[in-house]
């Protein structure tokens, strides 16, 4: 317990690093995943811009990368990171790897949640003269906003988990803190302090996401 008190400054710094890495990956992966997910939705057969070839290629890419366990993906993307000037270790690499993982996970969540928009709403909009582009970029996201918020909330929770695993490659955050000061030094107080903070972060994110989704769905 005394050792944990000594490490409190490092614990708060690790918490800030976890929030920073998760936020950066969410912004980058969230934007890329939204674009890719909308492309999957729009080009699938029977959708607004059906294109079997484009959908098939995008679908194969997402299905290939999304199931890769993150701890394996960390090692697999190191050569790619170095090729674009990102070091294969550290906080920047952690953001790079988590962004790639989140991008493909988010794209599938976006596609699935947009599919919950009732076909009758789209047909009514087209009958009223709305263009396919207007429906895709304005109507569909608005109608699917509630499920999208819940989907992104799930991803944020997953990102926090990924930041912990990224501690294995010195990506900072609570994962590295728990490994270096808890696991390697056989100090369960330190390890469980990191676990407790992660649980608090996850609970806060889930609560806010659920509350926002409920507000949107009640409109």
Automatic annotation (TrEMBL):
Q: Where, per UniProt, does this protein localize?
A: Cell membrane
List UniProt keywords, sorted A-Z.
Cell membrane, Membrane, Transmembrane, Transmembrane helix, Transport
Q: Is Transport among the key words of this record?
A: yes
Q: Which family does it belong to?
A: Belongs to the binding-protein-dependent transport system permease family.
Q: What is this protein called?
A: ABC transporter permease subunit
Superkingdom is Bacteria
SUPFAM superfamilies hit by this protein: MetI-like
Q: Which residues form the ABC transmembrane type-1 domain?
A: 15-209
Chain ranges passing through the membrane = 20-41, 53-77, 89-110, 148-169, 189-213
Chaperone as UniProt keyword: no
Primary location group:
membrane
* Pfam families attached to this UniProt entry: BPD_transp_1 (PF00528)
How does the record say this protein sits in the membrane? Multi-pass membrane protein
């Amino acid at each position: 317990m005394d050792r944990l008190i000594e490490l409190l400054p490092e614990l708060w710094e690790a918490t800030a690093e976890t929030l920073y890495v998760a936020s950066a990956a969410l912004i980058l992966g969230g934007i890329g995943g939204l674009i890719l997910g909308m492309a999957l939705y729009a080009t699938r057969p029977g959708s607004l811009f059906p294109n079997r070839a484009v959908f098939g290629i995008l679908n194969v890419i997402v299905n290939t990368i999304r199931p890769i366990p993150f701890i394996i993906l960390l090692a697999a993307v190191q050569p790619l990171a170095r090729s674009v000037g990102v070091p294969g270790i550290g906080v920047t690499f952690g953001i790079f790897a988590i962004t790639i993982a989140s991008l493909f996970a988010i794209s599938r969540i976006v596609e699935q949640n947009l599919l919950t928009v009732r076909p009758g709403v789209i047909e009514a909009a087209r009958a009223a003269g709305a263009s396919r582009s207007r429906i895709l970029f304005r109507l569909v996201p608005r109608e699917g906003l509630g499920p999208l918020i819940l989907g992104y909330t799930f991803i944020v929770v997953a990102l926090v988990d990924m930041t912990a695993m990224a501690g294995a490659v010195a990506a900072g955050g609570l994962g590295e803190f728990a490994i270096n000061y808890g696991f390697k030094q056989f100090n369960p107080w330190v390890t469980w302090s990191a676990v407790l903070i992660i649980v608090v972060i996850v609970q806060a994110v889930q609560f806010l996401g659920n509350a926002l989704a409920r507000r949107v769905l009640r409109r």
